[in-house]
Design goal:
alpha/beta
Length: 245
Protein backbone atom coordinates (compact mmCIF):
# COMPACT_ATOMS: atom_id res chain seq x y z
CA UNK A 1 0.00 0.00 0.00
CA UNK A 2 3.05 2.23 0.17
CA UNK A 3 2.58 5.55 -1.60
CA UNK A 4 -1.12 4.99 -2.32
CA UNK A 5 -4.14 6.49 -0.64
CA UNK A 6 -6.76 3.81 -0.25
CA UNK A 7 -10.37 3.83 0.90
CA UNK A 8 -11.61 1.72 3.79
CA UNK A 9 -15.12 1.02 5.07
CA UNK A 10 -15.08 0.06 8.76
CA UNK A 11 -18.27 -1.10 10.45
CA UNK A 12 -18.78 -0.16 14.07
CA UNK A 13 -16.04 2.45 13.83
CA UNK A 14 -17.48 5.03 16.21
CA UNK A 15 -15.64 3.84 19.32
CA UNK A 16 -13.63 1.10 21.01
CA UNK A 17 -11.82 -1.29 18.66
CA UNK A 18 -13.50 0.11 15.56
CA UNK A 19 -12.28 3.63 16.28
CA UNK A 20 -8.75 2.38 16.95
CA UNK A 21 -8.73 0.58 13.60
CA UNK A 22 -10.06 3.63 11.79
CA UNK A 23 -7.34 5.85 13.25
CA UNK A 24 -4.60 3.30 12.58
CA UNK A 25 -5.58 2.90 8.93
CA UNK A 26 -5.86 6.66 8.53
CA UNK A 27 -2.31 7.02 9.84
CA UNK A 28 -1.26 4.51 7.18
CA UNK A 29 -2.81 6.47 4.33
CA UNK A 30 -6.45 5.39 4.14
CA UNK A 31 -9.49 7.55 3.71
CA UNK A 32 -12.20 6.07 5.91
CA UNK A 33 -15.95 5.55 5.84
CA UNK A 34 -16.90 5.46 9.52
CA UNK A 35 -20.01 3.33 10.02
CA UNK A 36 -22.19 3.50 13.09
CA UNK A 37 -25.74 2.56 14.05
CA UNK A 38 -26.77 4.73 16.99
CA UNK A 39 -23.42 6.20 18.12
CA UNK A 40 -23.52 9.15 15.74
CA UNK A 41 -21.82 11.62 18.08
CA UNK A 42 -18.87 9.28 18.66
CA UNK A 43 -18.70 8.52 14.92
CA UNK A 44 -18.48 12.23 14.14
CA UNK A 45 -15.63 12.50 16.65
CA UNK A 46 -13.80 9.62 14.97
CA UNK A 47 -14.24 11.23 11.57
CA UNK A 48 -12.90 14.54 12.84
CA UNK A 49 -9.82 12.79 14.26
CA UNK A 50 -9.20 11.28 10.83
CA UNK A 51 -9.58 14.63 9.05
CA UNK A 52 -6.97 16.12 11.38
CA UNK A 53 -4.55 13.57 9.86
CA UNK A 54 -5.21 15.09 6.42
CA UNK A 55 -7.33 12.11 5.42
CA UNK A 56 -10.88 12.17 4.16
CA UNK A 57 -13.65 10.70 6.30
CA UNK A 58 -17.38 10.26 5.98
CA UNK A 59 -19.89 9.00 8.55
CA UNK A 60 -22.49 6.45 7.44
CA UNK A 61 -25.33 5.25 9.64
CA UNK A 62 -27.05 1.92 9.12
CA UNK A 63 -28.64 -0.90 11.07
CA UNK A 64 -26.63 -3.88 9.84
CA UNK A 65 -29.43 -6.22 10.84
CA UNK A 66 -31.32 -4.75 7.87
CA UNK A 67 -29.91 -6.49 4.75
CA UNK A 68 -30.77 -3.59 2.43
CA UNK A 69 -29.15 -1.05 4.74
CA UNK A 70 -26.02 -3.18 5.05
CA UNK A 71 -25.64 -3.61 1.29
CA UNK A 72 -26.24 0.10 0.70
CA UNK A 73 -23.18 1.03 2.78
CA UNK A 74 -20.88 0.02 -0.06
CA UNK A 75 -22.51 2.32 -2.60
CA UNK A 76 -22.60 5.13 -0.06
CA UNK A 77 -18.87 4.72 0.56
CA UNK A 78 -18.07 4.78 -3.15
CA UNK A 79 -20.27 7.85 -3.68
CA UNK A 80 -18.74 9.75 -0.76
CA UNK A 81 -15.07 8.82 -1.16
CA UNK A 82 -14.74 7.65 -4.76
CA UNK A 83 -14.07 3.95 -4.36
CA UNK A 84 -13.51 1.07 -1.96
CA UNK A 85 -10.35 -0.98 -1.44
CA UNK A 86 -10.63 -2.26 2.13
CA UNK A 87 -13.57 -3.66 4.09
CA UNK A 88 -13.26 -4.17 7.84
CA UNK A 89 -16.15 -6.13 9.36
CA UNK A 90 -15.84 -5.06 12.98
CA UNK A 91 -19.39 -4.39 14.20
CA UNK A 92 -20.94 -7.09 16.38
CA UNK A 93 -23.27 -7.63 19.31
CA UNK A 94 -22.20 -9.48 22.45
CA UNK A 95 -25.17 -10.69 24.46
CA UNK A 96 -25.43 -13.32 27.13
CA UNK A 97 -27.22 -16.53 26.14
CA UNK A 98 -26.97 -19.81 28.04
CA UNK A 99 -28.93 -22.90 27.07
CA UNK A 100 -31.66 -21.95 29.54
CA UNK A 101 -31.72 -18.37 28.27
CA UNK A 102 -32.12 -19.34 24.61
CA UNK A 103 -34.34 -17.00 22.64
CA UNK A 104 -34.87 -17.39 18.91
CA UNK A 105 -35.20 -13.64 18.25
CA UNK A 106 -31.96 -12.96 20.15
CA UNK A 107 -30.24 -15.86 18.34
CA UNK A 108 -31.33 -14.55 14.94
CA UNK A 109 -30.29 -11.00 15.86
CA UNK A 110 -26.75 -12.14 16.75
CA UNK A 111 -26.34 -14.12 13.55
CA UNK A 112 -27.82 -11.32 11.45
CA UNK A 113 -25.33 -8.74 12.69
CA UNK A 114 -22.24 -10.86 13.39
CA UNK A 115 -22.37 -13.24 10.42
CA UNK A 116 -24.93 -12.35 7.76
CA UNK A 117 -24.05 -8.64 7.55
CA UNK A 118 -20.34 -9.37 6.83
CA UNK A 119 -21.43 -11.70 4.01
CA UNK A 120 -23.79 -9.09 2.56
CA UNK A 121 -21.08 -6.44 2.74
CA UNK A 122 -18.48 -8.72 1.18
CA UNK A 123 -20.83 -9.55 -1.69
CA UNK A 124 -21.67 -5.90 -2.31
CA UNK A 125 -18.03 -4.82 -2.02
CA UNK A 126 -16.53 -7.53 -4.24
CA UNK A 127 -16.84 -5.70 -7.59
CA UNK A 128 -15.01 -2.71 -6.13
CA UNK A 129 -12.42 -4.63 -4.13
CA UNK A 130 -11.32 -6.67 -7.14
CA UNK A 131 -10.71 -3.67 -9.40
CA UNK A 132 -7.07 -3.09 -8.52
CA UNK A 133 -6.33 -6.78 -7.73
CA UNK A 134 -5.39 -5.68 -4.22
CA UNK A 135 -8.67 -5.48 -2.36
CA UNK A 136 -8.81 -6.68 1.21
CA UNK A 137 -11.31 -7.81 3.79
CA UNK A 138 -10.48 -8.22 7.46
CA UNK A 139 -13.08 -9.81 9.72
CA UNK A 140 -12.93 -9.24 13.47
CA UNK A 141 -13.38 -12.64 15.08
CA UNK A 142 -12.88 -13.90 18.62
CA UNK A 143 -10.76 -16.64 20.17
CA UNK A 144 -14.04 -17.97 21.59
CA UNK A 145 -14.90 -19.17 18.07
CA UNK A 146 -12.62 -22.15 18.74
CA UNK A 147 -13.30 -22.49 22.47
CA UNK A 148 -16.91 -21.33 22.94
CA UNK A 149 -18.31 -19.98 26.16
CA UNK A 150 -21.53 -21.76 27.22
CA UNK A 151 -23.02 -18.52 28.52
CA UNK A 152 -22.66 -16.66 25.19
CA UNK A 153 -23.88 -19.29 22.74
CA UNK A 154 -25.21 -17.08 19.95
CA UNK A 155 -22.15 -14.83 19.98
CA UNK A 156 -19.67 -17.71 19.89
CA UNK A 157 -21.51 -19.56 17.13
CA UNK A 158 -21.79 -16.41 15.02
CA UNK A 159 -18.05 -15.77 15.36
CA UNK A 160 -17.25 -19.40 14.52
CA UNK A 161 -19.37 -19.01 11.40
CA UNK A 162 -17.53 -15.82 10.53
CA UNK A 163 -14.21 -17.63 10.89
CA UNK A 164 -15.37 -20.26 8.39
CA UNK A 165 -16.70 -17.52 6.12
CA UNK A 166 -13.27 -15.89 6.21
CA UNK A 167 -11.67 -19.05 4.85
CA UNK A 168 -14.40 -19.57 2.27
CA UNK A 169 -14.24 -16.00 0.97
CA UNK A 170 -10.45 -16.15 0.79
CA UNK A 171 -10.88 -19.00 -1.72
CA UNK A 172 -13.87 -17.51 -3.52
CA UNK A 173 -12.31 -14.07 -4.00
CA UNK A 174 -8.75 -15.10 -4.83
CA UNK A 175 -6.54 -13.87 -6.35
CA UNK A 176 -7.91 -10.33 -6.60
CA UNK A 177 -9.01 -9.97 -2.97
CA UNK A 178 -7.30 -11.13 0.20
CA UNK A 179 -9.53 -12.09 3.13
CA UNK A 180 -8.18 -12.54 6.65
CA UNK A 181 -9.34 -12.46 10.25
CA UNK A 182 -8.10 -11.01 13.53
CA UNK A 183 -9.24 -12.78 16.71
CA UNK A 184 -8.75 -10.60 19.80
CA UNK A 185 -8.54 -12.08 23.24
CA UNK A 186 -9.20 -10.17 26.47
CA UNK A 187 -8.90 -6.46 25.80
CA UNK A 188 -12.19 -4.66 26.39
CA UNK A 189 -14.80 -5.88 28.81
CA UNK A 190 -18.42 -4.79 29.18
CA UNK A 191 -18.77 -1.85 31.56
CA UNK A 192 -20.60 -3.99 34.11
CA UNK A 193 -17.96 -6.75 34.25
CA UNK A 194 -16.78 -7.23 37.83
CA UNK A 195 -13.14 -6.69 38.74
CA UNK A 196 -12.73 -10.16 40.23
CA UNK A 197 -13.65 -11.79 36.92
CA UNK A 198 -11.23 -9.57 35.01
CA UNK A 199 -8.42 -10.43 37.43
CA UNK A 200 -9.15 -14.15 37.17
CA UNK A 201 -9.04 -14.00 33.37
CA UNK A 202 -5.84 -11.98 33.38
CA UNK A 203 -4.08 -14.54 35.59
CA UNK A 204 -4.75 -17.21 32.95
CA UNK A 205 -3.14 -15.20 30.13
CA UNK A 206 0.53 -16.15 29.55
CA UNK A 207 1.37 -12.47 28.95
CA UNK A 208 -0.22 -11.72 32.38
CA UNK A 209 -1.98 -8.62 31.08
CA UNK A 210 -4.92 -7.54 28.99
CA UNK A 211 -4.49 -6.47 25.41
CA UNK A 212 -5.18 -2.97 24.08
CA UNK A 213 -7.30 -1.71 21.23
CA UNK A 214 -4.14 -0.23 19.73
CA UNK A 215 -2.53 -3.68 19.55
CA UNK A 216 -5.57 -5.11 17.81
CA UNK A 217 -5.65 -2.18 15.37
CA UNK A 218 -1.95 -2.60 14.64
CA UNK A 219 -2.58 -6.21 13.63
CA UNK A 220 -5.34 -5.13 11.27
CA UNK A 221 -3.00 -2.50 9.80
CA UNK A 222 -0.34 -5.18 9.28
CA UNK A 223 -2.82 -7.33 7.34
CA UNK A 224 -3.99 -4.41 5.23
CA UNK A 225 -0.70 -2.65 4.58
CA UNK A 226 2.13 -5.17 4.87
CA UNK A 227 1.03 -8.80 4.63
CA UNK A 228 0.69 -9.01 0.85
CA UNK A 229 1.08 -12.82 0.79
CA UNK A 230 -1.43 -13.47 3.56
CA UNK A 231 -4.95 -14.68 2.83
CA UNK A 232 -7.30 -17.08 4.57
CA UNK A 233 -5.42 -16.55 7.83
CA UNK A 234 -6.65 -15.79 11.32
CA UNK A 235 -4.24 -14.16 13.76
CA UNK A 236 -4.95 -14.51 17.48
CA UNK A 237 -4.11 -11.30 19.34
CA UNK A 238 -4.58 -12.64 22.82
CA UNK A 239 -1.34 -12.69 24.79
CA UNK A 240 -1.28 -16.48 24.45
CA UNK A 241 -4.66 -17.04 26.07
CA UNK A 242 -5.81 -19.41 23.31
CA UNK A 243 -2.92 -21.80 24.00
CA UNK A 244 -3.37 -21.62 27.77
CA UNK A 245 -6.97 -22.85 27.92
Amino acid sequence: MAGARRIALITGAAKRIGRAIALELAKSGCDVAVHCHTSREEADETAEMIRRMDRRATVLTADLADPKAAAALVGQTVEALGGLNVLINNASIYERMSITEFSLPAWNAALALNLTAPMILAHAAYPHLREDHNGQIVNLLDIAAERPWPDHLAYCISKAGLATLTSALAKAMAPEVRVNGVAPGAALFPKDEDKATIKAITRRIPALRLGTVEEIAATVRFMVCDATYLTGAVLNVDGGRSIAW
